[in-house]
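Encode chain A's predicted structure.
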Amino acid sequence: MTKEIKMNAKRVGPQVPVYDLFADGYKIGIATNFYGEGAVATIDTMLSGYVTIKGSDFKDTLRLVRKEYLEDIESVRQERKAEAFAEAGCSAVFSGASMDVAYQAANYAMKGAA
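Encoded structure for chain A:
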C-alpha cells in the first residue's frame, strides 16, 4: 500500500504567473503561465532529470506534472525491487546456497525494497 503524495503549486509573488511546485513539501520544479506562452512546467525527476511539460491550460499542465512525477516514482520503485532481487539472489548463490534458497532470499529482498 502506498501513501498518497500531496502535491501543490505555490505562487511566488502577487501578479506574477510563476509557481513553485511541491510534492510532500519538497520543491520538485516550477510552472509558469505567461500570456502568449501558456502553461509550462519543468520538474526534476529521479530517472530522466529535468522534464518540461506543456498542457492545454494550467490545470491540464498540473495534471500532467502529477502523472509524470508519479510514473517516475513508480519506475524508481520497480528499479529498486529488481536491484534488490538480483543482489540478494546472487549473494545467496555465491555463498553456496541452493537455487531454491537463493530465489527465496531474492523474493524477500524484493518485497523489502518496495
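Residues 7-112 form one domain.
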